[in-house]
Amino acid sequence: xxxxxxxxxxxxxxxxxxxxxxxxxxxxxxxxxxxxxxxxxxxxxxxxxxxxxxxxxxxxxxxxxxxxxxxxxxxxxxxxxxxxxxxxxxxxxxxxxxxxxxxxxxxxxxxxxxxxxxxxxxxxxxxxxxxxxxxxxxxxxxxxxxxxxxxxxxxxxxxxxxxxxxxxxxxxxxxxxxxxxxxxxxxxxxxxxxxxxxxxxxxxxxxxxxxxxxxxxxxxxxxxxxxxxxxxxxxxxxxxxxxxxxxxxxxxxxxxxxxxxxxxxxxxxxxxxxxxxxxxxxxxxx
Length: 286
Known about the structure:
38% of the residues lie in helices and 22% in strands. The protein is an alpha+beta fold and 286 residues long. The protein has 2 domains: 39-105, Beta Barrel (Thrombin, subunit H), CATH 2.40.10; 119-285, Glutaredoxin (3-Layer(aba) Sandwich), CATH 3.40.30.10. A 5-stranded mixed beta sheet has the order 8-10-9-11-12. A 4-stranded antiparallel beta sheet has the order 1-2-3-4, with no helix packed on it. A 3-stranded antiparallel beta sheet has the order 5-6-7, with no helix packed on it. Strand 1 (39-44) and strand 2 form a beta hairpin. 27% of the residues are buried.
């Protein structure tokens, strides 16, 4: 018997002896989301943080990945299908009545807590700029002087709210955040903020202490405040708010609760702020 014949025989025996493998399948329901209406389609954002549900009443419901409703958006009647895109907030909506496919951007408006956060500008300013940042982030360091220009250009119309969002990859981001907040207790947050960003690529305990000495802050009071668990809770709150709003990196900026889409340049901020001022003016007159 040749090798070829032997192979055929072995193959046939294998086929005759083969039995389909049975596997037990277990179904586990991870989450139930109660939908106000009849859902006709659902899609998850590219990054997995947002769940978009289209209902039969032409409404788009936006949920967090935990299943909490974030907002409702009206879409044209006849909308029957939705599809995601590489951009987390851009969707394609298929409309059977109009025989169209529309690309839409879902711009959620988030609410942030400003209590105990360092701020710059009047509390009643028509525009609130909420910044999530990291003291070891080079892009954040480049943005700091731009925000100074924004404050100078809109001293009465823009309030800047500072939020710590230390990234895990940055070893001294948390100590720097604690130091900035400790300096805030002595009325020196923004000068300390500037020195930290000027030294973003060489931060360590010695550099933080040198900045404290340079600004003449009381050492004992400063250290006691840095060790205060309340400051860690404040940083944790900022992180939780940022995560809930879809912050993935730093710097991330929100204008009146909406994520800023313009470039983080002075021109970009002017465009976004002027648009927000115009929108606030229209709201005030209605």
